[in-house]
Amino acid sequence: MKRICTALFLCLIVCSFVTDAAAEQRKARGLLGLVGADHVGITVPDINEAVAWFEVVMGCSAPLTFGPFSDPVGSFMQDLLDVHPRAVIKQITMVRCGRSASIELFEYQSPDQNQTFPKNSDWSGHHIAFYVTDIDLAVADLVSKGVEKLLGPLPVTGGPAAGQSINYFKTPFGTYIELISYPDGMAYEQDPSRPLWSPKRNGTDSVSTNVPGLLGMDHVGITVPDIDEAIAWFEDVLGCAAPLTFGPFSDPVGTFMQDLLDVDPLAVINQITMLRCGHGPSVELFEYVSPDQDQTFRKNSDYGGKHIAFYVRHIDKAVAYMESKGVEKLLGPLPVTEGPAAGQTINYFRSPFGTYIELISYPKGMAYEATARIPLWDPRDNRP
Questions:
Q1: Is 8 domain-assigned?
Q2: How far apart are CA 358 and CA 81, in angstroms?
Q3: Residue 7 within a domain
Q4: Which ranges of 176-255 would DSSP assign to H, the alpha helix?
Q5: Which residue of 96, 108, 236, 295 has the fewest C-beta atoms within 10 A of its own C-beta?
Q6: What span, in angstroms and rounded, lies between the C-alpha atoms of 368 and 191?
Q7: pTM for this structure?
Q8: Cis link prior to 248 (omega < 30° from 0)?
């Protein structure tokens, strides 16, 4: 009887802790007014090449292009985007693939631009994952179009991520693209806690793509120096939840890591954790150890520069909330009042793990929508 009482007491403590943590996350999301991921921004060497790749290979649409932007005498670019004061954004183009978050492509010129591509194992490593209903069919489609495929499709058969199959691809502009499928869900979902969001919730027919069965962005993966620190930041600041953790992964004698992820054969993934932030694509965190790891953070103007943008309902309140949490804010909120992107207001923030976070809001839409045949996907339309 004593053992039963002790077990019940411990269960009550744990359950209370989990409930309190969930309540704090809901409170943070409420104060922030966070809806979900709006887009992932990446810097590419040649924006026309990247736009063409997404249009031809992925069948995506590119309804919004704007720029250039520069400040030849002042510090506007540095204050707004944390880049060199003389950095120039030649063009920005936003791409829609399916029914999920967009991809925002940047082409920069900057005196201090790093023009090397990061590996997945580097602190600036990242990838964009798209959900497909039939991974074998989708992989065959990309291979038929000449896209460089890494090892796969790889089915995950053990652990909490069991049920997913993945395959990475290399693009000519330095960003890795992953195809992922989990038609029957994943093992971790047996837990009653809230699962990760999936683009399957927005419908299972493909739109704004020519890849068979592609539904939209499933997650963005980023490599961080300290995964526990990054998880805590997302949970405490953005109110995200972390329902899925798995790993480690390594191959001390073979080439599995190199073949699967294009990293050093001796690279080790200490841990992977997937975060749900509102209704929209997840954020997948990686912590790597690798002999050739680049332990520097990229600027937005560098090849491999990236940011994750979250849509918020009231940007002034959201920015004030972020400042109250001690997050380093750049110039803003900045309303865009002219051109095709007019109607949006933005503000960038620096995170302690090297990825820039943007808050964006466009409560009345943007100017380009008046003439766009296919507008960008709006995270406010995501089904929970």
A1: no
A2: 10
A3: no
A4: 227-233
A5: 295
A6: 43
A7: 0.93
A8: yes
